[in-house]
Amino acid sequence: MPDESGTRFRYTVPSSTEVDAWVQETLVVDPGSSANDIYEKEQPSSLFLLFYLPQARELLFRVPHWRIDGIGLMYLQTAFLRILSNGPSEEIQLDGLEAKYLAPSLDQAAAVQLETTAATSQAADEELGVFIRGLPSISISTLPNHEFNSETCGQGGGKYTGFNAIDLRKYLPVPYNGPEAAASIYHTGIPVSIDLAVHKYFESIAAEFHYGYRQYVNKVLELLNTQPPDPLHAPAHPELSSIGLINDHLQAKNEGSASTIDVEEWWVAIEAINRLLLTNVWTRSDRMCLSVIWNEAFYEDSFVVKFLEEWEQTVLKELDVN
C-alpha cells in the first residue's frame, strides 16, 4: 500500500486469508466462454487476471499493458506452464523478501542517466521531429464514412507516420534480458515517417523501418498524452508491432513430472480505444501470423477483414510465397 508521501509503496506480508481472497479475485473459471468472448465483453481492470476456460481448452492471461510487455508475458506464461506441468508443490512460505524479485524500471535496468543534458534533449527533439514533421499521416476512413479502395489508398504521395515498437530486453544486462525480469516493460516506440511518393514499393518501405534508439521517452509520453479535442481527428492508420519468434520465449511442449502440456495455439491482443488498426505480427512453429485489433465504434468487421485480406495478399506476393 502507498506510504504517507504517496510516492512509495510499503509491502506487508499477506495472511493466508488475504492470499486466498487474492486468488478468488484474480483466478476466474468460466466453463462456457472462450478467450475471444472474454476479450470482447470483459471490462478493463488494473489487476492481472487469469481465466481458465475448460470448454474452450484455453487459458487467458489478461493484464494491463503498463504492467508487462509481450516478451515478458511469454516468459511468464512459460514459467506458469512449467509449474502447472510439474503439479502441486510444497506450500510457498512468504517471508517479507518477495519485493526483491520485482523487476526494476527500464531506466534502472539500462542504467540511464536521468539528468537531461543539452545533447540528450537535442537527440530527443530530433527523434520526435520525425513524427511531428510527418503529420498528418495518411488516414483510413472510419465510420460512418468507411469506404476503402486498395487501389488508391496511399497512392500518389502522402506519409505514413507512426511508431515502430522495439524490444529492448536483448540490449539489457543479465538478469534483465531474460525470464527473471518477465514482469516488466522493457520496450519503446521509435517514430517513423515514410514518404509514399518516394518509397512506393515493399522493399523500400520495409527498409525505412530500420531505425536506431534515442532517449526521448518522456517527451513521447507528453506528446501521446495530449488528446485531440475530437476523437475523429485522431490518427487512423495501421500501427504494426512485431512480437518476433514466439518459440524463442514460449515452448510448444511443456513436460513435467505430473503431466505434459502442449500449447496448440497462441495469440495476443490489446484493447483498442482509438481509430488505429492495432496490428501484430509474429512467427510460431514456422508459421507467420498477422492479427489486427480494432474498435467497433470506428470500423465494421467486413471492412477490417477486407483490409487484412489485401494486406495478406501483398505480403505473400512481395515475399514470393505461393
Shape: globular
Helix tally equals: 8
CATH class category of the largest domain? Alpha Beta
Second-tier CATH architecture of the largest domain: 2-Layer Sandwich
Number of strands: 10
Q: What is the count of structural domains? A: 2
Give the oligomeric state of the chains in this entry, treating copies of one chain as homo and distinct chains as hetero: single chain
Termini separation (Å)?
57 Å
What secondary-structure arrangement, pairings included, does this model have?
Blueprint: H1 16-26, E1 27-29, H2 35-41, E2 49-53, E3 58-62, H3 70-86, H4 106-109, H5 118-133, E4 159-167, E5 187-195, H6 202-207, H7 217-224, E6 238-245, E7 253-255, E8 260-262, E9 277-284, E10 287-293, H8 301-318
Parallel strand pairs: 1-2, 6-9
Antiparallel strand pairs: 2-3, 4-5, 7-8, 9-10
Structural commentary:
InterPro entries: CAT-like_dom_sf. It is built from eight helices and ten strands. It is α/β, with parallel strands linked by helices and 322 residues long. The protein folds into two domains: 62 residues, no CATH class; 196 residues, 2-Layer Sandwich (Chloramphenicol Acetyltransferase). It has a three-stranded mixed beta sheet. The chain has a three-stranded mixed beta sheet with strand order 6-9-10, with helices on one face. β7 and β8 form a beta hairpin. It is globular. About 7% of the residues have low confidence.
